[in-house]
Amino acid sequence: MSSDRESGLVEEALTHSVIRAFYNAHKELGFGFREYLYALALERELAAMGHRVDREVGVMVYYRGEPLAWQTLDMIVDEKLVLETKATERLHPNARRQLFSYLCATHLEVGLLLHFGREPKFYRVICENRFKRHRNGDRC
Fold first, then answer.
1. Domains and CATH numbers, the chain
2. Which end of the chain is more exposed for a tag (fewer CB within 10 A), N or C?
3. Model pTM?
4. pLDDT tens digits, one per residue of 10-50
């Protein structure tokens, strides 16, 4: 996986670019809209910056090496970064854990939880592939 780990952060340049787009979208719209509208605005912002955005991406979750069910991710940017968006007054305590679980179900290692609350906040979540299990149950 291509990343800029030499600088210390997985996909550092990409995450900085996405965070800038997130703040731009929040500044333009303000607080109070539905999550869907923020996601559309963020998608447009990212596309204008030259990023590839895949929305509502289905990934298979496996249990003991067998397919269990499809899980839908909000967005994947440049085939490297999972985005989970929330638009609530208060962020649920398990929101970061949800993003971590999404990362565990993919080959991607970094995600951003973007909270379009009264004050915009983001959380960076990492799940390195070396700690994940392959579909057959073996560690990477």
1. 14-126 (3.90.320.10)
2. C
3. 0.84
4. 788 999 999 999 999 999 999 999 999 999 999 999 999 99
